Amino acid sequence: MRYWHGHGHVLSGWGIGVMAIVTLLVLLVLVLAAIALFRYVSRSRRPLPHGPAGPGAGVGVGAAGPGWGGPHGPVAGPAPEQLLAERFARGEIDAEEYRHRLDTLRSVNGPGDG
């Protein structure tokens, strides 16, 4: 017990100051880590649509329903025919399946009737 009141006290003078600075630094690191985690989690994991955003480009479906992409209005995405052409170009589907699906997309009744 002699160190609590004698000259060998560890937390006297500079010891208290160093402990306060280290505590503040640890708190700062924890706050920055919490902010980084919040930004990472709140970020949308869905990639932004690419392609032209003009008429006929199609409208994406956002969280609030069809045609609404968020706080900035509708999200324009590639047209279904463009997506089908990209799949054909990548070799995911053959020419026969491409023509069949294209005919289905262009039919008057749409892909639901058939």
Name the overall outline.
rod-shaped
Q: What distance lies between the first and last C-alpha atoms, to the nearest angstrom?
A: 90 Å
Determine the strand fraction and express it as a percent band. under 5%
In percent, how helical is the residue content?
Answer: 40-55%
Q: Radius of gyration over alpha carbons?
A: 30 Å
Class derived from helix and strand content:
mainly alpha
Within the largest sheet, what's the order of strands? 1-2
Low-confidence stretches: 54-68
- Secondary structure tally: strands: 2
Mean pLDDT: 73
Could you describe the 3D structure shown?
- This protein is about 45% helix and about 5% strand.
- α2 packs antiparallel against α3.
- A two-stranded antiparallel sheet has the order 1-2.
- About 15% of the residues have low confidence.
- The longest helix has 29 residues.
- The chain is built from three helices and two strands, in the order αββαα.
- The protein starts with 13 loop residues before the first helix and ends in an 8-residue tail after the last helix.
- The protein has about 110 residues and is mainly alpha-helical.
- It has a domain of about 40 residues.
Concise summary:
The chain is mostly helical. It contains three helices and two strands.
Task: Give me some keywords for this one.
single chain, 114 residues, mainly alpha, two-stranded antiparallel sheet, rod-shaped
Helix-strand blueprint:
Blueprint: H1 14-42, E1 61-62, E2 65-66, H2 80-90, H3 95-106
Helix pairs in contact: 2-3
